[in-house]
Inverse folding.
């Protein structure tokens, strides 16, 4: 069973902003929007593009390849060409440190 | 130990190689240090993510007398076959080398490349990175050119028909590195059958393979070349493979890609003499989170040549395959007959197959066709098989075997057909 793993310091991520981190041999992206931290797989479900290199607008992250947008809070696909959600992971912040619990789904 | 300058100096110091080779290795090493890893914006790599590949986790293969060689990897292709010779390596160091004296007397040269280069340096120099694989292609090719070790060399002189198959087996231990180089040279009218296998000691062990295969065929030569890649699912596999085929020579190249965590392979066949003929049979079976990426190029340089590439892949779990094929026909390659096809069978809802065939034709009297299919197992076929007494899993195995049968029918070596069939059947699980 996956457990929470410390991945970054809160102060390292701008508001709003994002940061690519490696967790347990997996690449995920942290998003900081309106005071909250969210975490998604660094994978666009349309073509496997790197979401961490995309443009963050509000709660929406756009894949840099074809512009598919995902909701950073849930991973749900918002716009075409993506139709499936990317994987969202659990996040908690304690003492200025960000912890992530990977979701295998 | 790792891949530092000091490690490379130690690697060179352990070898007693000709000066020309040491110089070539140093040039390639300098290039390796200057180059970057391929970026994801490059078309070649846009679908293959290697950001989690960490070279510092591995080390150059150095001779280690204390290294014990496990005997747990059994060759899959040799059951019941009377071999003319064999070579084997473990973690990039040669462990076995044998060639029947009958063939040696006929002038056949066969053995680990790093040993043959000490005894037949001029012969190796004539072909190594000289006619086929480009050692400057990318950073992986440069690393390989600098630090290849072990590997295999086969030379069949003019007119010699090597009737017994030869075999090479490369094995990786957990965390091991294999930088093997395969160099096959058939002079005019020569014939041979070569079977190459790779495997790991542990089913999910880590590892790194960065290899190259060069095949050079003279006029009228015939080669059956089989490559079975069955590394464990933690191995990073990068390879450049190229065959150069002269007039009226025939190459049958069978590739089975079953293992590795990530594979990125460039397979290139150049038809350089009129009447050259190549048939490539590719079998891919993936599971778990495996990612196999094959990029093929059929390059018609001379007129009246024939190339026929057929790749079939079956995918289960969350695995992914990428196949990108190109038929390139030069202006003078009139009356080219080129064919390429890639079929993918998805055995789960979460597997993904990318198939990208392509044509680049500069001659106006050619026949070039290509095709690609991707689909799922037909539920009615499963139901029908179950109604005839098969279990669901037996039914799926039957359908998957049938899917690959078109390739098995093309493979002319019986034990290779059987070995591939068994290897795939063992992997098929319940269909989602």
């Amino acid at each position: 069973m996956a457990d929470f793993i410390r991945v970054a310091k809160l102060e390292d991520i701008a508001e709003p902003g994002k940061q690519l981190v490696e967790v347990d041999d997996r690449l995920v992206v942290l998003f900081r929007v309106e005071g909250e931290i969210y975490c998604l797989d660094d994978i666009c479900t349309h073509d496997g593009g790197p979401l961490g290199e995309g443009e963050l607008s509000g709660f929406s992250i756009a894949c840099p390849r074809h512009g598919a947008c995902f909701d950073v809070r849930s991973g749900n696909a918002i716009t075409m060409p993506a139709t499936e959600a990317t994987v969202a992971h659990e996040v908690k912040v304690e003492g200025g440190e960000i912890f992530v619990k990977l979701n295998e789904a | 130990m790792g891949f530092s300058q000091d490690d490379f100096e130690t690697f060179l110091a352990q070898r007693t190689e000709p000066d020309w080779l040491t110089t070539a290795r140093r040039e390639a090493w300098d290039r390796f240090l200057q180059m970057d890893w391929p970026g994801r914006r490059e078309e070649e790599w846009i679908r293959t993510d290697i950001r989690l590949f960490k070279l510092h986790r591995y080390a150059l293969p150095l001779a280690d007398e204390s290294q014990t060689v496990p005997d747990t990897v059994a060759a899959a292709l040799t059951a019941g076959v009377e071999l003319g010779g064999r070579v084997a390596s473990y973690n990039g160091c040669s462990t076995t080398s044998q060639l029947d004296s009958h063939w040696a007397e006929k002038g056949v040269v066969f053995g680990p490349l790093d040993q043959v280069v000490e005894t037949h340096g001029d012969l190796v120099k004539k072909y190594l990175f000289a006619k086929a694989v480009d050692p400057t292609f990318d950073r992986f090719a440069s690393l390989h050119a600098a630090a290849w070790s072990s590997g295999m060399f086969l030379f069949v002189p003019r007119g010699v028909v090597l009737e017994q198959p030869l075999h090479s087996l490369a094995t990786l231990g957990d965390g091991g590195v294999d930088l093997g180089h395969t160099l096959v040279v058939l002079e005019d009218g020569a014939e041979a059958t070569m079977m190459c296998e790779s495997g790991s000691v542990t089913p999910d062990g880590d590892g790194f393979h960065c290899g190259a295969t060069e095949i050079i065929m003279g006029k009228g030569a015939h080669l059956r070349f089989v490559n079975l890649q069955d590394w464990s699912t933690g191995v990073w596999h990068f390879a450049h493979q190229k065959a150069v085929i002269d007039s009226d020579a025939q190459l049958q190249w069978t590739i089975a890609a079953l293992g590795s965590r990530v594979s990125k392979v460039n397979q290139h066949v150049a038809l350089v003499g009129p009447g050259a003929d190549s048939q490539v049979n590719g079998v891919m079976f993936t599971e778990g989170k495996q990612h196999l990426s094959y990029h093929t190029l059929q390059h018609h340089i001379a007129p009246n040549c024939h190339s026929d590439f057929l790749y079939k892949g079956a995918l289960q779990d969350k695995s992914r395959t990428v196949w990108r094929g190109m038929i390139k026909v030069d202006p003078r390659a009139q009356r080219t007959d080129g064919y390429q096809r890639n079929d993918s069978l998805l055995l789960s809802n979460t597997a993904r197959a990318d198939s990208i065939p392509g044509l680049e034709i500069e001659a106006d009297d050619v026949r070039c066709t290509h095709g690609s299919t991707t689909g799922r197992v037909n539920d009615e076929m499963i139901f029908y098989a179950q109604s005839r007494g098969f279990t669901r899993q037996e039914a799926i195995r039957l359908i998957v075997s049938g899917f690959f049968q078109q390739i098995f029918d093309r493979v002319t070596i019986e034990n290779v057909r059987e070995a591939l069939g068994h290897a795939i059947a063992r992997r098929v699980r319940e269909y989602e």
